[in-house]
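Sequence only, no structure available. Ideas?
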Amino acid sequence: MKIGQMFMVGFRGTAVDASHWIVKDIVRRHLGGVILFDRNVDGSVQNISSPAQLQVLTTTLQEYGNGRLLIGVDQEGGRVCRLKARDGFPETVSAEMLAGFDDEKAAATADELAATLAAYGFTMNFAPVVDLDCNPDNPIISRYQRSFSGDPQQVVRCARLVIEAHHRHGIGCCLKHFPGHGSAGADSHLGFVDVTGDWQEQELVPFARLIDMDAADAVMTAHIVNRRLDPRGMVATLSRPIITGLLRQRLGFDGVVISDDLQMGAITKKWGFSEAVRRAVLAGVDLLVIGNNLACSRDALQVGIGCIQKMLDSGEIDADYIKASLARISTLQLQTTEKIVSDQGHHIFARS
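Reply:
I predicted one. C-alpha cells follow.
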C-alpha cells in the first residue's frame, strides 16, 4: 500500500529538482499532495513569488507526481490569500464581501479566483470556509472576514456558488472547519481552543446542506474541543465520535476528510507528531496535512508513514481501513488532476 498518499506536505523553496527532499518524498514515498504558501511565518518567501515562477514550480511538481499529485492552497480571498496582488496575481475579495454580491456577481467573482488557480496548476483549494460568523471577537474567522455570514442559509448560498465555480475549472474544494470554528474565542494555530459553551447546533447546517447537495469534495477538521459532541474533550481532528460518528455516519459524508495542519499549536502542545497521526487515523481522517509553514520537518512524511505501518503491523487497524482512505484520496486526485493537467498544457499523462 502507498501509505504516503495519505499525506499532504508543505516545503520551503520556490523551485525544485530531483535533489529536493519534497521531490524525493513524491517519487520514493508516494506523497499524495503538497500545499503551497506565499510566505513563512517569519515573512520570508516560502513557495510563491511571481506568476512565472509559480507556473514552473507547479509544472515541475506535477511532472514528478506523474500528473496525479494534489497541489493545494488556501486561496479563500481577502486576507487569507496565497496568490497576492503584490506578487502579480489578480485581486480577490473576502468571503464577507462576496456575500454582499448578488448571485451573478458572486459567481463571476468566484469564477475569476478559480480560473486563476487552474491557470497556475492548483488542483485543490482549501476553501470555502463555511463556519458561521457567530462571534465578532473570533480572532481567526470573524476578524479576517473569512465567514460569509452568521446566517446558515446565506453561507450555503455563497459556498455553493464558490464550489460550482471551482468545479467548472476542475478544482476540488474543501469545506472547513468541521464541526464549526465560528464561535471560538481563540486561535487554534496558537493552542487549545474549547467551544463547548458557545458552539451552536446550527453551525452544522452548512456542512449538512452542502453534503446533501453532493457539493463537498472534502471536509477539513477543526482543532477545537467541543464536549457537546465528544464528552471526552478530544480535539475534533482526533475525535472518532466527531469525525466518524457525526460527519461520516450522521451527516453521510463519504468524501475525503482532511486534517487541519498537524503542526498547529492546538496539536503540538499536547501530542507528539506520531501520536497525533495515530489518533487522527483512528478518528477517521483520510488526508493528513503537514504545512511546514509554522515549522519545517523534512522527515515528517517518513515518520508518519512509519506510524501508520506500525498500526497495521500491530493490528490496531486493518488493511481494509487504510485501503478505504486511499480509495477516497485516489478518487479526489482523478477528479481534480485530469482537467488541470490537460488545460495547463503540462503534457503529463497520469500513470497508475
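Residues 346-352 have pLDDT under 50 and may be disordered.
Hope that gets you unstuck.
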